[in-house]
Amino acid sequence: MLRSFVLAAGLATAAAPSSAADWVTVSPIFEERCIACHSGEFAPLGLQLDSFGGLIAGSENGPVVIPGDPGASPLIHRLLGQAEPRMPLDGPPFLADDQIAAISAWIGNGAEGPAADTAGAAPAEPADPREDGIIVYSEVARIFGQRCIECHSDNGKYDTPPEGLRLDSYQAILSGGDRLVLIPGNAQASEIIRRVEGLGSPRMPFDGPPWLTDADIDLLRDWIEGGALSDDGAPAPVPAGARIRMRGIMTGPAQIDGADFVIDGSTRIDDRPGVGQGAEVRGLVMPDGRIRAERLRDR
User: Fold this and answer.
1) CB count, 10 Å around CB of 61?
2) Cα separation, 114 vs 120, whole angstroms
3) What digits encode the pLDDT tens for the residues 80-100?
C-alpha cells in the first residue's frame, strides 16, 4: 500500500507536461503488454487498446482515460493495482514504474493521439499464423488472454485458479493443474480441446456462450497437433507417463470422442462399451503422445 502511495505521488509529478509524453512514446507499451488480450471482437469489456480510437472509446464501463487527469483515469488505477484486477492480467511482472509514469504523463499532457497523417489509420491486420507453415505459442496466446486468464491466473477473479490450472504463460499451460490439459501432437485427447469443444465438462470458457469461434478452436488444435511449439519454434516435451481420464462417447472400438487410445493385454475392461455408448477411459501418455488405456468401462 505504501509503495502504491509513493508511486502514485511520483506519477502526479511525472504527469506534468513533457514533450516526451506523447502517443509515439506510449503506444509501444500497449502493443507489448496489452493488445494480446485487448484487441478484436472478444476484447475484455470491449476495451480495444490496439488503436488510439479504441483506447479513448473506453470499455463497457465507460472511459478509461480522463485527458489531463491521470489520477482520475481508471487505466492508471488498474496499472497501479489501486483497482482490481491489476493489469496486465498475466502479471506479475506488471508494467515497470517508468512505463506507468510515461502513460500517466501522456494522460496529464491531454492524452493526445497520433499525428494527423496516421490518426485515421485502422489497426494493422494481424498476420496469418499459418503463413510460415508453423504455429507458435505467441500466435495462440491471444486466445488464452482474451477468454481464459480472467479465471485461470494468479491475478484472476478467484483466490486460486480453478482446478489449479494457470493459462497465463506457455510453461503454465504445459504444466497443467490438477490434471494434464495438453498432449503435444495429440490435440483430440488434450483437455483444452475437449473443454472448448464441449466434450469435457464444464465447457469452456466458463462465461460462454459465446464460446470460442471455430477459427480459434481450429488454431488451438493445429498448434497442439504441430507439437505446441514455443515462441522459438521448439516442440513441447511429451509428458510420457502422465495419467489422463476421458469420459465421452465411443466413436470407434478404441476411440472416445474422436480421440484414439491403445488397448493391450494389460487393459482392464469392465462391461465393454460399444460404439455410440458412453464410456470412460483412464490411461497413460506414451512417449509418442498416444494414450495406452489402463482401464475402459461403460459409463
Assistant:
1) 10
2) 9
3) 999 988 999 888 899 999 999
Asked whether residue 127 carries a pLDDT value surpassing 50, the answer given is yes
Q: What is the pLDDT of residues 130-181, one digit of tens each?
A: 999 999 999 999 999 999 999 999 988 888 999 999 999 999 999 999 999 9
Instruction: Collect contacts of 45-54 with beta carbons under 8 A, ≥24 apart.
Output: 50/123, 51/122, 51/123, 52/23, 52/27, 52/113, 52/114, 52/119, 53/113, 54/123
Q: Which amino acid is residue 131, in one-letter code?
A: E
* pLDDT band per the 50, 70, 90 thresholds, residue 110: very high
Contact criterion met (CB below 8 Å) for 152 and 161: yes
Are the C-beta atoms of 64 and 54 separated by less than 8 Å?
no
Count other Cβ atoms within 10 Å, centred on residue 29: 19
- Band (pLDDT 50/70/90 cuts) for residue 4 is very low
pTM: 0.80
